[in-house]
Structures are given as C-alpha cells and as structure tokens.
C-alpha cells in the first residue's frame, strides 16, 4: 500500500482520529511504563549520587576542618611562642639600648657643657683682651695724633707769620717798582689776575671742600700724610715763588738797560729819581 492508496483510503472513508492508537511517531516517544521507570531510576541514581557526594564532601570537609584547626592551633602556639621570645628579646634590647643611650647622652651633655663653658670663657677673655687692646691702641693713637696736630699747627702758624711778613715787605717794594715800570701792563695784569684769582679761588674752594670731605671720611693716617705733604708743598711753593720773584726782579732791569734809544734812558732816569725820592 502506497502513499497514494493510503491517501485515497483516507479521503474515501471518514476516520475518527480520537480512536487511533498511540504510535511511536506520536508526541510520546516512549511508552508510559518505560518513561516512568527511566525517570525513577535516574532520580534515584541522582539522589544516591548526591548523597554519596555530600557524604564524601562532608567527610572531606570535616577532615580538612580538623587538619586546619590543628594546624591553626599549632601555628598559633608557635606564633605565640615566637612573639613572646621576640618580645622578650626586644624588651631586653630596648632596655640595654636605652641604658647606653642615656649614658651616652649624659656623657655627651657633660662634654658639651664643659666644651661650651670653656669656649665661652675663652671667648669672653679674648673679647675682653681685644677690647682692652683696642681701647689702649685707640687712646695712644689719639694722643699721638693730638700731639702731632698741635705741633704741626704751631709750626704752621709760626711759618705763616714769618712768611706773611716777608711777603708783605717784598710785595710793597715789588708793587712800587711794578707800578712805576709798567702801568699798562699792571692794568692788564690786574684784570687778568682778578679774573684768574676768582676762578682759582672758586676752584680751590671746591677742591678744598672735596678734599676735606675725602680726608674726613678717610682714615686719620691719610690726614696725617696729607698734612705732611701739604707742609712740604707749601715750603716748596714758597721757595719757588721766592726764586721766581728774585729772578724776575733781576731780569727786568737788565733787559731794559740792554735796549737802545731814549726810552731806556728816560726809564732809567725815572727809576733813579723815584728811588731817590722814596
């Protein structure tokens, strides 16, 4: 019977599908008895397997817990013993170290105090001796400077008076000769001398101010040196000025006598008459 015959048979006669027996091709692959037996056996096996595994696990866990507890206890004992011994050693070491430190600190503090005291004493003594020496040196120097300044001032005053007298006497005679000899030249010289003297005075005053400020700010040795130098300069300038004045006085009459003409005779006669008049 082919598929076409079965289809024709089905189409020819009505069939009640509810009365069709169950076949392996229906929704139930296995018979109900087989399925139940299979399910029971599997569930039993699974339960048994679970129970046996749970027993094994429990036994293993118990043994492991016992081992762990024993190990933990032994380890805790060892740790406690080690910690106690270590704590004892540490305490002993700390005590000895603290003793050594205390002893060292005390000795060091003693040495430091002694060192500081001796140093402070030495410093005080050194400072006092230095201050004494400085005071003595300053006093002696000030005394010497005062004495030197007084003697120099006395010498300067005496020298200036004698020089001023000589200069006044010489200037009078020279002024008379110069006035008679060169009236026009004296006018020119006076004008030139006044302007130059003003400039020189201004310059000398500014320079003297600067020098005084510099000398005051500088040390006393420079002042003493400047004073001695100024004395030498004054003496040299005075001697040079005297020589120049004498040279000028001798040179002027000779130069006028050497000239030819009546002017020389007239000037010489004027000089003779004026001198005789004086």
Question: Biggest β-sheet: count, sense, barrel?
Answer: none
- Shape call: elongated
DSSP strand tally:
0
Number of helices: 5
What distance lies between the first and last C-alpha atoms, to the nearest angstrom? 199 Å
Unreliable stretches covering 5 or more consecutive residues: 35-39, 260-265
Helical fraction equals: over 70%
Q: What's the rounded overall pLDDT mean?
A: 57
Rg estimate, integer Å: 70 Å
Order of secondary-structure elements: HHHHH
Structural class: mainly alpha
The portion of residues forming beta strands comes to: under 5%
Write up what this structure looks like:
It is built from 5 helices and no strands. With 278 residues, the chain is an all-alpha fold. It has a domain at 171-181 and 194-257 and 268-278. Helix 2 packs parallel to helix 4 (220-258). The longest helix has 150 residues, at 32-181. The termini are far apart.
